[in-house]
């Protein structure tokens, strides 16, 4: 929940005013996108922790490789979504587009982590 509050404040949308079932303003839509990302990020963090535990069970080298891959993936996600948001640079859509991009990529990464050691 703390991450959701931080994300909502950073995006300029008060957490307590969100009606994400039917957002009516751009600010509400942006706030809801930020909340969606915060939820996806929390799920990713939980999935990463479980995957890290499985990697550690296979040895320090595998755990280190996973850590390096995750760090590189975060840099990729942030850069890719920044690039996507630049289509709307300076406009009210930019933060929403970036948050939606981060949500989508984060959800995909969670699924990738979930499957990483599935068949091993």
TrEMBL record:
The keyword Transmembrane helix does not apply. Transmembrane segments: none annotated. InterPro entries: LprI-like_N. Keywords: Signal. It holds the Pfam family LprI. The keyword Secreted does not apply. Residues 1-17 form the signal peptide. Residues 20-113 form the Lysozyme inhibitor LprI-like N-terminal domain. It comes from the Bacteria. Coiled coil: none annotated. This is Lysozyme inhibitor LprI family protein.
